[in-house]
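Researcher: Here's my situation. A collaborator sent me these components and asked whether they could plausibly form a single complex. I don't have experimental data yet, so a predicted model of the whole assembly would be a useful starting point for our discussion.
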Amino acid sequence: MIRIGIYGYGNLARGVESAIKKNDDMELKAVFTRRDPSTVKINTAGVNVYNAKDILNYKNDIDVLVICGGSMSDLPEMTPELVKNFNVVDSFDTHARIPEHFKNVDKNAKETNHVGLISCGWDPGMFSLNRAIMEAILPDGDSYTFWGKGVSQGHSDAIRRIKGVVDARQYTIPVDSALEAVRSGSRPTLTTRQKHTRECFVVSSDPKENARIEKEIKEMPNYFSDYDTTVHFISLEELKKNHNGIPHGGFVFRSGNTSDGVKHVIEYSLKLDSNPEFTGSVLIAYARGVARFASAKNYGCKTVFDFSPKDISNLSYEELLAHTL
Amino acid sequence: MIRIGIYGYGNLARGVESAIKKNDDMELKAVFTRRDPSTVKINTAGVNVYNAKDILNYKNDIDVLVICGGSMSDLPEMTPELVKNFNVVDSFDTHARIPEHFKNVDKNAKETNHVGLISCGWDPGMFSLNRAIMEAILPDGDSYTFWGKGVSQGHSDAIRRIKGVVDARQYTIPVDSALEAVRSGSRPTLTTRQKHTRECFVVSSDPKENARIEKEIKEMPNYFSDYDTTVHFISLEELKKNHNGIPHGGFVFRSGNTSDGVKHVIEYSLKLDSNPEFTGSVLIAYARGVARFASAKNYGCKTVFDFSPKDISNLSYEELLAHTL
């Protein structure tokens, strides 16, 4: 059994917890929280919740620690620190800061003989893995990534920061005609606006403010100004009833040529009822790989680029040969 | 530069040759044929064609030998023999005999310190890799593989063996409603007939024989009797004009649940203008991995399950971190 610890207990952690139950070689050993442990109710019977500051007491009870913190401020601190004492997995997703995060984790992991897998999940994660393999196969080609339809937490938060907004949910939606253009193999050049639209469901505190709120959303730089954005004002009840889920998904394409006029399109897509539950499932599959790397003394910082299918599979190599190949 | 040899020179070999030209770390060093070398014209200037029986003279000139033979009788003999002197890649695709082929190649590869990658391509190959990863991520789920729309060489050959058939082309076509049922996440159970249809374009020597030929096709066990099959009789000119390509493709799905009522669908698909050119591109990407495994003394028989994205990528790890993750 691979003994998993969860550090931090929010949506992603609950997704990790669900995933552990689906894998019969995994057990949840402990949850660590920075809150008062007595206030944290988890979904697994018989597993204790401990204060994060006591975590070193459980160093020998955990094979892989899954760190469920935010990429903005939590993970850049937590992962390099925790990897000094644990094999860890995180889902750090600030693409621009990945090389720096890698360096910090790698140094501490190698000095202390641990494995630290960073930026796991679906993007970065499964999408990255597919981009890398597709690009190796079709070097003369173009890659395309689309997200959605799904809830963007960052964009929803940005709307909530506008004065007069009680709550909000933002969906990122890939544009069908852009998907079709890519599928045709014509290797189109697509602008930001051509690839995605943004649909916002907003609860406002005062209908008289709606016009101003809508304008502020649509003109918000980086988040909305480069997109065709639709804003719907709805009641809090409706938001809670119809927009309570956390679905997501997306598409990765490679369109390439192998000789004059001979074209190929590779497409990978995800349609997810729950972003955190799927992400948690990816983290747990790769936690298996981390445990194996640690046993093989293959220490240091790792990403999805380092793991072969065999490294993360629960099947024996003989089973893979006979039934999956 | 990775020096590639090609053993056998048919459609797949020409696909491998095209792929080498798209990769700037690869060079075609030599082609080996069992025919009279003077009768074989290849598409790369300045590269020699040698008689296959002289191949050991070129042992030190080849880093990876790509074996382009048939799975029925060529590869089970060729790959275990050639791996005694070369690092090799093959595309052995008789699924039921893979474990036996693996064993034969593994023994000889380990005894002589070589790497032998078998069953590479897209199915087996990319589809297998995706099945393995998808199943690791969603253990509570069902996998589905669909082929087409594309030309099945085996089914086309089967039709050609019928008396009175001059030539024939058979397309395997996935059924749209079955694809949609899988995409819905409902995890349907699908029969052979529900998944694919078969469309045949047949040139007959005598129109009076068409009814008999059509009946023989539709009732042919294993190949057609379990499918809804359509037969079109056309002229040889039309066959050559409209059915000369070797397109193919297909879909791999994993539909799974991570908790009660929470479902996810992963889809991987290929749309290929040329089956042999795409297959050749996969073989060449993995030949890079084989060369690296040989340098690292990681000998023995290998499959796509053994290679990480990093092993086959032409990008440095730093580039992958910065641009692909």
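Model: Some features of this prediction you could bring to your collaborator: The mean pLDDT of chain B is 97. Chain B touches chain A through 69 residues (CB under 8 Å).
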